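Quick question, first post here. What does this chain look like in 3D?
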Amino acid sequence: MWNYKTPGIPDDKFERTENVPITKEEVRTIQISKARLKPGQIVYDIGCGSGSISVEAALQIESNGKVLAVDY
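> Answer (accepted):
Ran it through. Tokens below.
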């Protein structure tokens, strides 16, 4: 899907239906950069919606970290 460590996956790379909003690429990039995530951390994404931030966070914390994402 995305072969880079840097945040900023293009919006069109996410599969979603028209009714599901997505946090835009520019906003995700800033949020993930400001979080300064490191491998092995745990991330909670409450109200994850489409999960785009969860996906970007998972790339930063790598396979030894954990992302817990919930929405209704």
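The mean pLDDT is 92.
The CA atoms of residues 43 and 59 lie 11 Å apart.
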